[in-house]
Write a structure and sequence with these properties.
Number of domains: 2
Number of strands: 30
Largest sheet: 11 strands, mixed
Number of helices: 0
Shape: globular
CATH architecture of the largest domain: 3 Solenoid
Radius of gyration: 19 Å
Length: 238
């Protein structure tokens, strides 16, 4: 709370040092915007949202401990009720962060991408444009998501096969979701796995190995069933 001051712009609004708000934004009640955060034109920040929250790391956390840059909201971005966008996170133009979602430090959320209610985007995640992340998903640290990917509700991405028992300093490996792939609800993706372009992962699958472009995989562990047909490619649905 250090350095926050009340502002008359909205009920309960608290602003940190160096925050300048454009005239063309919507603010709910009890919004908190921490120091130096940059808010674009036409943004909307709903009730109880927090922008630029400083990170708090546990003693065994392997996340970088350097001071993050200020949070950035591109023009027209929307942060909904109770959501948190951490210091160092960046939302592209027209991106939406749903109610009670969390976007951590150094994460990048691309233009027109939607992060669903209660979903968590961990530190250092890179997400492209027009991605749809549904409700209650977890995108683990160092994940890369390319443009036009669909992530179904309850999907879990992992980055550590040892569950914390790896040598200190060993790099974690987030999954890579290539352009226009689709991940079904409640699927689990193993650390470092690559899901190929236009691939389809069935609901509830546990993916432990790379998936070829356009492959349809299902089951536990996931196995290839067939290929995505030409009529089902993204270009046919635009």
């Amino acid at each position: 709370m250090s350095g926050l001051r009340p502002s008359p712009r909205a009920p309960g609004l608290l602003l940190g040092e160096g925050v300048e708000l454009p005239d063309e934004i919507e603010l709910g009640g009890h919004v908190v915007i921490h120091a130096q955060a940059r808010i674009g034109r036409g943004c909307a920040i709903a009730d109880g949202a927090v922008i630029g929250k400083p990170p708090t790391l546990g003693p065994s956390s392997t996340a970088p401990r350097s001071e993050p840059a200020p949070a950035v909201l591109g023009d027209g971005a929307r942060v909904l009720a109770g959501a948190v966008v951490a210091a160092g996170a960046e939302l592209g133009e027209g991106a939406i962060v749903g109610d009670q979602a969390h976007v951590r430090e150094r994460a990048r959320v691309g233009p027109k991408t939607v992060i669903g209610r209660g979903s968590a985007v961990d530190n250092d995640v890179q997400i492209g444009a027009r991605v749809k992340v549904q409700t209650n998903c977890y995108l683990t640290a160092y994940t890369r998501v390319e443009d036009d990917v669909f992530v179904g509700p309850g999907v879990v991405l992992t980055n550590d096969d040892t569950m914390g028992r790896h040598p200190r300093g060993e790099a974690l490996a987030g999954p890579v979701l290539r352009r226009a792939c689709r991940i079904g609800g409640a699927a689990v993706i193993r650390a470092g796995v690559e899901i190929g372009e236009e691939a389809f992962v069935g609901a509830g699958a546990v993916v432990i190995a790379d998936v070829e472009p356009r492959a349809v995989v299902v089951g536990v562990p996931a196995r290839k069933l067939r290929e995505v047909g030409d009529a089902d490619l993204l270009e046919r649905w635009r």
